Amino acid sequence: MSVTLFSRICREHHIDDGEVLPLLPDQVLLHDALGTPVCLQLEAVGVTSIKPLLAIYCDHNTLQVGYRNDDDHVYLYGMAKRLGAYFFRPGEGICHQTHLERFSKPGDILLGADSHTPTCGGAGMLSIGVGGLTVVGALAGEPYRIPRPSVLGIKLVGKLSEWVTAKDVALHLLKTVSVKGGVGKIFEFYGPGVETLSVNERATICNMGAEAGATASIFPSDLRTLEFLRAFGREADWRPLAADDGAVYDEDLLIDLAAIEPLIACPSSPDNVRSVQEIEGLPLDQVCIGSCTNASYADIAIAAAVWKGRRIPDSLDVSVAAGTRMTLAQLMKDGYISPLVDAGARVLEACCGPCNAAGMSPGSGKTTLRTFNRNFKGRSGTLDAQVYLCSPQTAAVSALTGRITDPRTFGAAPALSVPSQFSYTWRQNTPVADPSFPVEKGPNIKPMPIGSPVPDALTLPVKLLAGDNITTDHILPGGAEMLALRSNVPDSVPYVFERIDPEFGKKANTLPKSWCVIGGENYGQGSSREHAVMVPLYIGMKAVIAVSFARIYRRNLINFGILPLTFADPSERGNIALDDELCIEHIHDALHSGTLLVRNVTRNTSFAVECRLTADEYDLLLSGGVLKRLAANIASAS
Fold this sequence. Notes:
This protein has 638 residues and is an alpha/beta fold. Helix content is 28%, strand content 18%. It contains 20 helices and 25 strands. Strands 19-20-21-22-25-24-23 form a 7-stranded mixed beta barrel. Helix 2 crosses helix 5 and helix 9 packs parallel to helix 12. The longest helix has 16 residues, at 68-83. The model has no long low-confidence stretch (mean pLDDT 95).
């Protein structure tokens, strides 16, 4: 029987195509926004050795304002030495781009504590973004068990026209399927159009699959993959890998690359996509090129080529950031940095930076054009900013005019040649674990909250009413100030839910011991940050009742022993008011059937909710989450 690429990788890892897939990763990545909690949790349960390759990147918290960021970096360095992990200091690069260059390997399974981990699917890896507690279990040797995703086979035909890019393909896909259209799915690309795309272009498409909620996106490994790996001295990691001819997919989608035009995502959702031509002429205040989506050599070089000998308007604030130190070094060697500086752009270090509001936040009410992956309200660090997403080509041409501009009006696209060999030499050797290495914990490093077993009955006042497509930024924002508190849950409390209810965090000390949130569709989309669960848990959240959940957020709830409940009848959501008291009884038995009855004591009504769980998820909820169960298993084994 012909098999998909996803099924082939699973079979190679001795994972049968059952209803639940136990994934044991070959590799794991962490960054400094989530890595500190993960390492603290590893310590809390007594994990002293790890199974897969681990790479820890300092890419989010690089501003180092005050002592907090450096506290995290010093702690992570010590833990990397202790565990035998690769450690990348601030400025070495964005985790996804650096991992693609350094460690991507066709056929391997990668788990990452970041939603954009699927980026490495551009090199033929099965790469999945998860919450930090899932990574803790994986590092300790516990499989990540997920319901088998359906596989959407996306056939690419044709070839991109001049000035049209992989970012436009990603935006076209988002426009087609929406920000929730990939939930529970693998996006698997195949067809004759695949070979026309470089690995970095494929990685851009896989990166943006996360915005559709996809579990993973993956391309085959072919001669273009070999070309990419050879450029970084890693041709030994290459092997051909693809779906069988005639493989049958659960769903099918055809994309003609030749029919795509320059596209742009309008405020404030990545799937609010229109053609650039439709909104051409809109004045801009800021342009930012970079992020894990578009910071490859070609992405930066095209801006330099467009701007060479030209000047950006003085009224425009423009930044450029390469994705990795290796990319930056090669761009410097090849003469692509001087045109950026001469044009008037600000050249930033190789880091996430403006994408997560760690710098370059636009002024109030300003319009910013970015090559990033998210434009949720407030994501830029400015609540009323108007954020548009586009390709580096569209951004570069628009920066010259000071207005959103179709790049095709520029004339012929500058010719670029990506090096066949990158000359930068990494300083690192293969790490060796040193369990006795001293680990420093500064005053910003606080213990992480641990969940508790779900009781058989709960009385839950409703303390927050939320709408549709609530992101983790709504629940706990990003930005330089909040990034510095990722290892400090108690100090994060004042910021919780501030983008839904600015006063919520200030009322935290008046909340009851247990309470719940009522949400709409796709609750918890966006970043994998488990702080969006940890901080509410710390102040008493025991359940979220929503119309539907984003995949990672739902699993993060379960990982901490919090009930993820969905309305059997979504219209019941409108019958619940703030401070209504909800009562749920006989929870343990009801979870077996998947349907629970909720009594609204305040209104003397009842309604049904659903909680469809795998056996593993049921065990996690009744154990109190990953940490409780893992600690018990380790204690039992010893």
